[in-house]
Amino acid sequence: MSHIDTKNLGFDSKVIHSGAHHDAYGSATVPIYQTSTFAFDNAQQGADRFAGTASGFIYTRLGNPTINALERQMAELEGGFGGIAMSSGMGSVSTVYLALLDQGAHMVGSATVYGPSRLLAEKHLSRFGVESTWVDTSNLDSLRKAMRPNTKMVYTETVANPTMDVTDIRGAAEIAHANNALLVVDNTFASPYLHRPIEHGADVVLHSVTKFLNGHADVVGGVVVPKTEALFRQLRPMMTTLGCNMDPHQAYLVIRGIKTLALRIERAQANAMRIAQWLEQQPQVEWVRYIGLPSHPQHELAKVLMSGFGSMIAFELKGGLEAGRTVMDSVKLATLAVSLGGVESLIEHPASMTHAGVPRDHRIEAGITDGLVRYSVGIEDVDDLIADLAQALDRVGDWARGKKAPKVGIAD
Ligand SMILES: *Cc1c(COP(=O)(O)O)cnc(C)c1O
C-alpha cells in the first residue's frame, strides 16, 4: 500500500486516512501490536534507541505502532505538532498540569470545566504549591481580572460542560499570551470536526477520546495535542513517566471510531437541533441551552468559532429537580448514564452525578442549577427520540398534577 499524503486533504478524508500505518502485508487497517516490548537486533541498536539516535520502538509505555498511528492522526486533525495518547481524559489533564505548572505557579480555569479537572487543581495541585482561580471565562473581563504575574496557564473548554457557555478562545489566547501564560483547551465537547482551538490561538488541546472521538461508549481514553515541538517535548516524557499511556487495543478501537466521526457528528447535531427546537416549545420546559438556537446568548460567537453546533443540550423543567428526575426515570430510548458523545443518546443530572464533587455554591455560581438536565443526543431516529422525550414530559405533567403516570409510548 502506498503512503497517502493527507496534509492537504479535507477533514472527512483525514478521519479515514491520517496516521495510517503501512505494514509488510498491506493490511488495510492499523494492526494491533499487542506487545509490551520490542526486540533489538543487537545491543548497539538498543543503546541507540535509548539514546534517541536511532528510531524504533523500545517498550509500549514509551511508544507503540498502533498507538502512534492514532497520535499522528490526532496531530493532523487538530493541526498541532504531535499527539500524545493517554489511558483516559483525566490522564491527559494530569499530564498537562504536571508538565506545565511548577511550584509557585498560578492557573486560571473556567468555573464550569469538567468537575475532576477543577478538583485535581484545587485539591491536589494546591498541595504542591500551585494555586488556581476559577472564573466564568466566557466573560473575558473576568478572565483578565483573574490573571496574576505568576499565572502560567489559562485552562478552558470552548463549550462549557454542562452550561453550554462559549468562551471566545481568540480573546482568551490574547489574554494568556500577554501574560506569558499558555492557553490549554479541553476540546472534548466539540471534537476537531467542529472546532480546532489551535487555529484560534490555543497552545495545547486535550480530549477525553472516550466521548465523540471514539464515539461508541466502549473505550475510555485521552489525547493531548500541543501546538509546538517544544511543548511536545515537555509533555510526552511526563506521560511516559506518570505511566498513563494508552493501550494498543484501546488505540485500535479509537482509530476505528474516528473513521465515522464526521458522519456521526453530522447526524447527531441534526438530531440535536430538532430536539432543542422541540424542547423549546414544550410547556413543561423552563429553558433550553443549545448553542445552535438563536436564544443561546453566545450563538453568534459559536458560529464564528465552530463549523457546527454539536449535539449537547442542557435544559431545565418548570418543576425543577423533581420534574427532571421524573424525565430521567421515564425515558426509555435514551440511556440514563453519564458520559456523552456516543452513537446512543444519554441523559444525566450534573448536580447529583458528573458535578456532584463540586461544592453546591460553586456549582450554582457556575450556572449548574439543581434542576439542569444534560442530554447527549445520539444518532437514533430523531422522531423516536422526540417521542421518547414526549412520553417522559407527559409524566411530568401528571406528576405536577399529582396523578399517577400513564403507561404510554415506547415499551419498557
Ligand atoms: C469525560 C470528560 C473528561 C474526562 O475524561 P475521561 O476519559 O473520563 O477520563 C474531561 N473533560 C471533559 C470535557 C469530559 O467530558
Features:
binds pyridoxal-5'-phosphate, 39% helix, 13% strand, disordered C terminus, 412 residues, Aspartate Aminotransferase, domain 1, Aspartate Aminotransferase, domain 2, 2 domains, alpha/beta
Can you give me a brief rundown of this structure?
This protein is an alpha/beta fold and 412 residues long. It is 39% helix and 13% strand.
Structure write-up:
With 412 residues, the chain is of the alpha/beta class. The protein has 15 helices and twelve strands. It has helices spanning 11-17, 43-51, 65-78, 89-100, 115-124, 140-146, 169-178, 191-194, 229-242, 248-258, 261-280, 299-305, 320-330, 360-365, 382-400; strands at 84-86, 106-110, 131-135, 151-157, 182-186, 204-208, 222-226, 285-289, 312-317, 335-336, 346-348, 373-376. A seven-stranded mixed beta sheet has the order 1-7-6-5-4-2-3, sandwiched between helices. The longest helix is centred in the middle third of the chain and has 20 residues, at 261-280. The structure holds pyridoxal-5'-phosphate. The site of pyridoxal-5'-phosphate has 15 residues, from α4.
Give the helices and strands, then pairings:
Layout: H1 11-17, H2 43-51, H3 65-78, E1 84-86, H4 89-100, E2 106-110, H5 115-124, E3 131-135, H6 140-146, E4 151-157, H7 169-178, E5 182-186, H8 191-194, E6 204-208, E7 222-226, H9 229-242, H10 248-258, H11 261-280, E8 285-289, H12 299-305, E9 312-317, H13 320-330, E10 335-336, E11 346-348, H14 360-365, E12 373-376, H15 382-400
Parallel strand pairs: 2-3, 2-4, 4-5, 5-6, 10-11
Antiparallel strand pairs: 1-7, 6-7, 8-9, 9-12, 11-12
Helix pairs in contact: 3-10, 4-5, 4-9, 13-15
Bound molecules: pyridoxal-5'-phosphate.
